[in-house]
Design brief:
Length: about 400
């Protein structure tokens, strides 16, 4: 891999992972990802910000060797997750005198997850600074910019913010700087949905804090560097706001066609009423796409057949995920079919306890949907339109 200079004395030394296709054994990575690490030279001390996934630790070492970095005084760990901290044991083998600079919570996790010895830590608190000589690092605790121990580091003189997961996105790009286009926005929005959306309320505060810092650049630990911070900050302000769009998301599975007929009818009924609609066949869709769609949608309608006595397991999994991601969705309903019984609608509604939704009357039918069932779906479409009008998004 090729290390790169951002400004004199500040280098990207991370690793690109073009082949990785799954993160946390859950999140699809259609574009791969990167693990960004940065070296900052001050007149007296040098610091490494974050490390890389252990699968790529030799690339990090190779980059340090290429830049003839013979001394690291401080390793700043902004986040304990292994894709950023996982190469810390190897870094400490190469630089045994380095101090690991992080907050108390992160220290405890690093000791638990990586067995880092307690004596190597230099503990910082919110607002603390660390001098490298002619350069100064300033630390801000930002809990739940993925995990509870997360922090960001601000290089004051160059006004570069290193926020680790926050403001990043999963892509393996040979470009150092983010291109400001729709493709980047889509990737960043998908990442926001998968990683940051559950912490939307906290994120809003961090956006304000970052705007006050007025960074010249934002250098996250996944994806390219943002040379124009307003591009990503404005996008985050929009995504994390309370405003929703006139959209309905329908995650569904159909085993023998009955639920599919209901979904097809509801999709048409919503379209003729001027409502944007996105059905997601869970047997085929990528859950990252579903998460992305949940960022803005005003309504989710879960559609399921009945397996034994409840919803299809793939629908259960998608509903669990949607609930865990805590989208700002305002309304929810359930549609589907059963053969001899079951309480699919009740089960799905109970699963949405983290999403503050108003539940609209479910449409559950026995077997193949008949004319009465289709009329029920038309009434559901009418109700969705009415609700969207009440919150002024139509
Ligand atoms: Fe990129 Fe939360 O790790």
């Amino acid at each position: 891999m090729v290390a790169k200079e951002i400004v004199p004395g500040v280098f990207w030394v991370g690793a690109l992972d073009f082949d990785r296709r799954l993160f946390d054994e859950l999140i699809p990575l259609p574009e791969g990802t990167s693990y960004n690490a940065y070296v900052i030279h001050g007149s007296e001390k040098s610091a490494l910000i974050d490390t890389v996934d252990p699968a790529k630790e030799f690339e990090l070492i190779e980059n340090l060797v290429k830049f003839r970095i013979e001394r690291i005084d401080y390793v700043i760990i902004n986040h304990a997750e292994q894709d950023h901290a996982g190469s810390l044991p190897m870094i400490l083998e190469f630089f045994p005198d380095a101090k690991v600079v992080t907050n108390e919570k992160c220290r405890d996790l690093l000791i638990a997850l990586l067995h880092i010895p307690a004596h190597v830590f230099h503990i910082i608190k919110d607002g603390d600074t660390l001098s490298l000589g002619d350069r100064t690092l300033e630390f801000h605790l930002t809990p739940w910019t993925h995990w509870p121990e997360t922090q960001v580091t601000f290089l004051k003189e160059d006004r570069i913010l290193f926020p680790c997961d926050l403001f990043g996105y999963h892509t393996a790009s040979s470009e150092l700087y983010a291109v400001e286009d729709a493709v980047t926005l889509r990737s960043a929005k998908r990442y926001y949905a998968e990683i940051m959306m559950p912490f939307r309320n906290s994120i809003r505060g961090y956006i304000a804090m970052v705007r006050d810092l007025s960074p010249a650049m934002i250098a996250p630990s996944h994806g390219p560097v943002h040379k124009n911070p307003a591009f990503i900050l404005d996008a985050y302000s929009d995504w994390s706001s309370d405003s929703v769009k006139n959209e309905v998301i329908i995650p569904y599975v159909s085993m023998h066609g009955s639920t599919q007929k209901m979904v097809d009818h509801l999709v048409s009924a919503l379209m003729v009423r001027g409502i944007a609609v996105k059905p997601f066949n869970l047997s085929r869709t990528d859950i990252g796409e579903l998460a992305l769609a949940l960022v803005d949608a005003a309504t989710i309608v879960v559609a399921t057949p009945t397996v034994l006595f409840g919803p299809h397991p793939q629908v259960v999994s998608a509903t669990y995920l949607a609930n865990a991601l805590k989208p700002k969705t305002r309304f929810a309903s359930v549609i589907g079919s059963y053969g001899w019984g079951g309480k699919s609608a009740d089960t799905i509604v109970k699963m949405l306890d983290h999403v503050k939704v108003e539940v609209l009357e479910p449409v559950i039918v026995r077997g193949l949907p008949d004319e009465a069932a289709m009329q029920g779906l038309d009434r559901l479409a009418d109700e969705i339109l009415k609700k969207h009008k009440e919150i002024s998004i139509v």
